[in-house]
Structure formats: structure tokens, C-alpha cells
Design a protein that fits this description.
Order of helices and strands: EHEEHEEHHEHEEHEHEHEHEHEHEH
Shape: globular
Number of strands: 14
């Protein structure tokens, strides 16, 4: 360890879903590629989230569970505590993998930004139902801004976010690095039920920009035609005001099933058994369910927005619809049931300079 340069990956706020998988996959891949040259120090919420690296002699894991108690603790940790920690560790590279730029001393400083909400234009209706969400977008934009110019590089997941960062924060050192997700799943061996209802699945946490209402309105329109189907959505109505509104408004539609949030394994199992995946979200930094749907070779009905075209790339089983057009979505859902979807290949995205398609190419660039 003495002869190796030290690299720090920090992500004390990453504990669930896609964001957590980013630091897990990044750490695992970094150790595979560079354990002979660097010693990796992980600064995380809990060591138990990194069981596969606990016994690795090339990895040190420091856990700080108290940081998630409040944003006060988070800011104190990032802007005060990390300074003294970095002086002790003396890292060659500090890669912050959860949006905020910590105040540290290192040869190289890089921040990875994957929260897209600061760039969301909230509507009046959304503001009235979720004022906390509006305040959160303003607060998060401030968190992004602090220390951002002290980084050697700022990493985002897609080109549209790169343009937003360049315009809002007036910086020119933004890299685009696509998430390199490893989807670990073994399908259960069981007989298919020939009488199974045609199932649409929309897995997401109920936030205003996730646009569940367009999916539910489409189901409402499809119900009028007496077509046999079901739409599974991952909320119960108790999560927040937005979820409560959805439950109250659409609970009478028997085809809409409120199944609540599921763990990752269960979500993948439901997705594997579903006939078609819906994804009407208005805003994503990537959209992990789209990557998972591609993994299962599923038909996808998705909002016709930049993030979807970038995530799906050349996938040939996708149909795009105007993000708020429930009528068009209902038509596509009927097409899916009748097995005559008008697929279209996503638009070609010009990735430009400083684009990285996986962790390997990104690490090769930033570790030199």
C-alpha cells in the first residue's frame, strides 16, 4: 500500500437503487483494472453495501452513517470534515460520486453529478402539490454550484446534462460518462401462464416529474375499450402528496395496480414477467429501468425526450410518444397488446469530445 497512489471514491449519500449501483460498479471495476497501481479508499454510508470488497487488501472502506441524518450533517461532512480527512489520507485522486463537490486536498479533484432535478421546470400544478420538491430543486442547484470550479473535471451521464452544466455554471470541463451498470439476475424457472393478463409495468419512485398521471390516463382511456390488461405502478399512495393524489384519482380504475416500491430483485422479476415497459418520465439523468428493459429485451413505450434517445441508443424495440399525450400512449398500449407496435430507432446522438462509454475508458483518462 505504501508504494501505491491512493484514490478516494466518496459517496456517503448513496444507499439505494441506481445511484448506489454507480459507486458499487465503479469500485468493483476500478479494483479489477488498477489494484496493482492504486489503493482504493471508499468513503460510504455502510461497509455492508460493499461486501464483495470487504476482504480485499487493496481497498479500505470507511463508513459514515451519521452523514444522512440531515443536510446540515451532509454539508458539514463535505465542506469541513473531508478537508481534514483528505489531509490525513493524502490522495492522488478524489472522485466524489454523489453530486456535491467536497472541500479536499488532492492532486486531482473530480465530481460525478447524476441528479437532474435542478434543471426541471416545474409547473404551477406541480408547485401547488409538491412545494418541497420545488424548494429541493433550488437547494440542489446551490449544492451543485459550491466548489464546482475547483474540480479538474465534472462528470455527467448524458449530453443534455453537459449542456445544462455548461450553461448554468459556466464551466467547460464537463465529461460525459455513460453508466456501466451490471445487471445481475437469474430468471426463475417456472411455467408461463397462457391466460396471464397482458401486463404493463412502470417502475419508479413517485415524484412529480415521473409523470405517472399520463400512464394512468392512458390506462383510463384503454379501459373504455374493454381491453383486458393491467398496469403495475410502484407506489401505494402513502409516499408523498403526489402519490396520494395519484391514488385518490386513479384507484377506481381496476386495471391500475398500486403495488408499492419493490426491492431490486423483485423489480427485475416483475419486469422479466411483464409484457411491456412504460416510461413516461419527464426528466432523467439516465433512466435505469430503460437499461434493465433492454437487458430483458422488452418492448418499451417511452417519452420522446433526449434522455430516452441517449439511454436507448440503437435499441430497436422502443416506441416514443409526446411526454404528456395520454391518448397517443393509450394507442401504443393497444398496439402492444395486439402485437403491432410501430417501432422506431432512437435519434442519433452526437457524443462529441470527452465521451466515455464505460468505466474502463473513463478511468484510463482520469488516472493518468
Amino acid at each position: 500500500m505504501i508504494d501505491k497512489k491512493i484514490v478516494v471514491f466518496s459517496g456517503v449519500n448513496l444507499t439505494v437503487a441506481g445511484p448506489l449501483s454507480i459507486i458499487q460498479d465503479a469500485a468493483e471495476r476500478f479494483v479489477e483494472l488498477y489494484s496493482n497501481k492504486f489503493h482504493l479508499v471508499l468513503i460510504v454510508h455502510s461497509k455492508l453495501l460493499f461486501n464483495n470488497l470487504l476482504e480485499n487488501p487493496n481497498v479500505t472502506i470507511n463508513e459514515y452513517p451519521w452523514v444522512k441524518k440531515s443536510y446540515f450533517f451532509r454539508c458539514y461532512f463535505e465542506w469541513v470534515y473531508c478537508w481534514f480527512l483528505s489531509k490525513k489520507i493524502k490522495p492522488f485522486l478524489w472522485l466524489a460520486l454523489h453530486d456535491m463537490t467536497p472541500n479536499v486536498s488532492a492532486n486531482k479533484r473530480i465530481v460525478y453529478c447524476h441528479n437532474a432535478t435542478p434543471f426541471y421546470k416545474i409547473s404551477k400544478e406541480e408547485f401547488q402539490s409538491e412545494k418541497k420538491f420545488f424548494l429541493f430543486t433550488l437547494f440542489y442547484k446551490y449544492l451543485y454550484r459550491v466548489n464546482i470550479r475547483k474540480n479538474d473535471f465534472v462528470i455527467v451521464q448524458q449530453n443534455w446534462m453537459k449542456k445544462e452544466f455548461e450553461n448554468v455554471f459556466k464551466i467547460k470541463n464537463v465529461l460525459v460518462a455513460q453508466p456501466d451498470f451490471k445487471i445481475k439476475y437469474t430468471p426463475l424457472e417456472k411455467e408461463k401462464n397462457p391466460n396471464q393478463v397482458f401486463t404493463f409495468f412502470y417502475p419508479s419512485f413517485p415524484r412529480p416529474f415521473k409523470n405517472f398521471e399520463t400512464a394512468c390516463e392512458a390506462a383510463k382511456l384503454l379501459k373504455i375499450k374493454n381491453i383486458n390488461f393491467q398496469l403495475l405502478i410502484t407506489l401505494t399512495g402513502n409516499e408523498n402528496k403526489y402519490a396520494s393524489m395519484l391514488k385518490e384519482k386513479y384507484d377506481s380504475i381496476e386495471q391500475v395496480k398500486f403495488i408499492g416500491l419493490q426491492n431490486r430483485n423483485t423489480t427485475l422479476e416483475i419486469m422479466n414477467n411483464a409484457n411491456c415497459i412504460l416510461f413516461p418520465s419527464k426528466l432523467e439523468s439516465w433512466g435505469l429501468p430503460l437499461t434493465e428493459a433492454k437487458f430483458f429485451n422488452k418492448n418499451i413505450l417511452v417519452a420522446d425526450l433526449n434522455y430516452a434517445h441517449e439511454t436507448l441508443a440503437d435499441y430497436k424495440q422502443a416506441c416514443f410518444f409526446p411526454v404528456n399525450d395520454a391518448k397517443k400512449l393509450s394507442e401504443l398500449m393497444e398496439n402492444a397488446i395486439n402485437q403491432n407496435l410501430p417501432f422506431s430507432v432512437p435519434s442519433v446522438i452526437n457524443n462529441g469530445d470527452h465521451f466515455f462509454a464505460n468505466w474502463s475508458s473513463l478511468f484510463q483518462f482520469i488516472c493518468n
